[in-house]
Specification:
Layout lengths: L8 E3 L19 E2 H10 L1 H11 L5 H14 L7 E2 L14 H20 L3 H6 L16 E5 L4 H11 L3 H13 L3 H10 L5 H11 L17 H5 L9 E5 L2 H25 L20 H6 L12 H4 L18 H12 L6 E4 L13 E8 L2 E7 L3 E7 L9 E7 L10 E7 L2 E6 L5 E6 L8 E2 L11 E2 L12 E6 L6 E4 L7 E5 L6 E2 L3 H8 L13 E13 L6 E11 L6 E7 L10 E7 L12 E7 L5 E7 L3 E8 L3 E3 L3 E5 L6 E7 L4 E3 L3
Parallel strand pairs: 6-10, 18-20
Antiparallel strand pairs: 1-24, 2-3, 4-5, 7-8, 8-9, 9-10, 11-12, 12-15, 13-14, 13-16, 16-17, 17-18, 18-19, 20-21, 21-22, 22-23, 24-25, 25-28, 26-27, 26-29, 29-30
Amino acid sequence: MLNVPPDKAPLAAAPPTAPAPAPSVTPVAPVGLEQAEAALVEHYPRLVRLAYLVLPPSLGRNRRVLTAHALVQRSLPRGRRAPGGAGVPGQRSGGTTARQAGYAYVRVRVLRQALEAGRPLLRLARPVRAQLPPLLPRVWGLRLFPRSGGADELALDRRLSALPGAARAAFVLRGLEDLTDEEVRELLGAAGADDVDTALAQATAAARPDQDRTPGAPRAVVDTGALLRSTEFDPCSLQARPTDLMRRRQYRRAALAVTTAVLVCGALFGPPGGGWGPDGPAAPAYAGNPAALAALDPGAVRRVAPAAWRTASRADFSVWPARGPLARDTGLLRRALAVWARPGGAVAVSATPGTPTGPPMGSPQLLYAGEVDGVRVVLFHDGLRVVRYAETGENGAGGLAALDFARTDGADEAASGALVLARADANVRYLTAPWVTGTAVRDLLAPASPARPLHRDADGVTDPLRSTAASPGSCRSWDALEVASAAPAPRLLTDLGELTPARLTSGPPGSPQDVSAPADRAAWARTACLLPAVRAHGVRSVNSWEYARAALPESNGTASWLCTRADTWRGPGSRVLAHFQAPSASPAAPAALAARAADSPACGPRDPSVLAGVLWKSRAGHWYLLAAGSPGLGAVTATGGVSGTSRTGVLALPARRDTVAELRARAADGTPVNSLR
C-alpha cells in the first residue's frame, strides 16, 4: 500500500502489515522484494553467521567466510514477489508480520544453499541452486578468517566439524535462533534437509559438553548460545593475512609462459592471407559488395516524388518526399551515410528500446536534409527505422555529431504524421507528413482553451514549441502538437523524448478515438502529468479510458477511474497506469496514481479488464478503501486489512489510513482478475 497526499492515496495491493498474534510457526506468505531486502539488510550479520556455521568445515575458514557472504547476498527473490512456501518459524523478536515473513523467507533460502554446499552430487542435479565454482568468490592475495576464541569455542568448533550438514544446522538453529525442536524440524524440511529426525538426535548428542571433558575434570556448564554468538564464529569481524607469496610468484611466471606459447603457436599455424579462417562467400568489408557500396553512395539514396503519397496504396513514411534545402548536398549526405555505417567513438548514438543500430540495409530513403537552429540535420528511412544524423562545425570537422534511431515498422497514416526534427533550448521542431494540412498547439492542461496556430514552412518544418520532454519535472502546462488532415478530427501528438511523437487517444481499448470531445480533453487535463512515466520506452500511442464512475461516500461527489495504456512500436514493453480522479475545483488537478503494470495485457484490446483501488479521505476526515473494476467484471472483493464484497463492480469500505488490502474480481466467464500492481 502506498499513501499519497490526503484525499487521493493510491492502493498498491500487498500483504497485510498489521501486527498479528505471534504464533510459534508463521506461514510464509508471498514476500515482496522490498520486504526480503529490508530483512536481509537488517539481519545481515545474523544471516551470515548462520551460513558460516552451517557450511561444511572442509571448505576452510577463508572459503567459508567468502561463501557465507556470497550466498546471503544471493538469497533475494528473483522476481518482484517470492511465492509462499510451507510453514516455517518466524523470528521470535518483535516486528510486523511483513518483516517476519521477509526474514523467514531469506533465512530458509540461506539455510537451503548452505546445506546444498555440502552435497556435490546435488550441485550437478540442480544447477539453479548450486554454489559458486570452487574458485569463486575469492579475494586475491588475502586470506580472511574470524578472530580466534578460547578453549570452549575451539571445542565447540571440533564438535560441529564432526556433524553432518543437517545435524550441524539443527544445532545452530537451536542455539543461535532459539528455536524449538518442532520449529527446527519444519525449517529443515523447508530447506530440503534429509532425515531430519536423525539430524535432531545427532545435534542433541553433540550439545552435551561432557564428551570434551578430560577424565577426572569437573563437569562444566557451557552456554552454547553464547559460544555461537562469539567472535570465533563471526564472519563479519575478520582478520586478514597474506597468501603464500613465493607460490604466487611461481604462478605468475607460469601464466606468462603459457600466454607467450599460445601467441607464438597462433602466429605459426594461423592461415596466411589474414584472419582466423575463411569467410566463405562474404566479400571484404565495403569492397565489391553492391549493397554495401550503394548504402554509402549519396547519389543512390532513394527519393520519393512530392506527389507520390496522393496515389500510393498506403500512407506511411515510405511515401514521404525528400525535402529540405540541403537535400542535394552530396557532402552532407556522404558524411551522414558513413557515420551511420561506421559511427566513431565521438559520435553520440541513441536508440529507442528494441531498435537495431546497424548500418543501412541498402540505399535508404531520404526524408529531409537541412539546417535547423544552427545544426545540419538529415533524416533517413529504411523501411524498419527512421534515422536522424546531426552535426555541427564546418563540413562536420571539429564539431559534434549525433545519430538517433527509432523503430517505425508497421506505421500507418496516424502513426506517421510527424517526426521530431530538432530540439534546442527546451523546444522541439517537427517535420510533418505531406498530407498534413494544418498544425496547432494545444495545452493539455487547459482543456477549455482553443488551440494556438503553429506556423510551418514550405518543407513542413514547424516553428519551435515547448517540449515537456526536456523538463519532465515541471508540469504547469503540456503543449501537444495538433495536426489536421483529411481525417474527421485532428490528431494529438506529444513529444516523449524520442524521434517519433506518441499519438494520444481516448476511449475503450477496442475502439480508441482521437482526443476531440470536451469530456476527453477534460480527462487528459488531469492525466497528462503522468506521461513522464512512459518516456523513452519507444511508445507509439497512449490511450486514456474512463472505465468507471462512482459516487463517493458521504455525498462527496462523483469520482472517475481511468486507465492509461502506452503501447510500443516493438510490441512488448507496454505500460499501464490506473488512476483515480476525485472531484476538484481545478480542471488540471493531477489524478492520483492508483497502480501501474509493465508488459501487461490489461486495459488493452486483448484484455480490456482492469481493477484498481485507492485509500481516500472524505471532507469529514474519514478514510475509505475505494475500488472499481471495468465493465464486464462481477463482484469486487477486498481481503486483508479490510474485508468486504460488492456485486456492482464498485467498492467503498471504511478503512484506516494505513490499511493494506488485496483486491480481486471475476470476469463474466469466471476468470479471476487481480488488481494492477
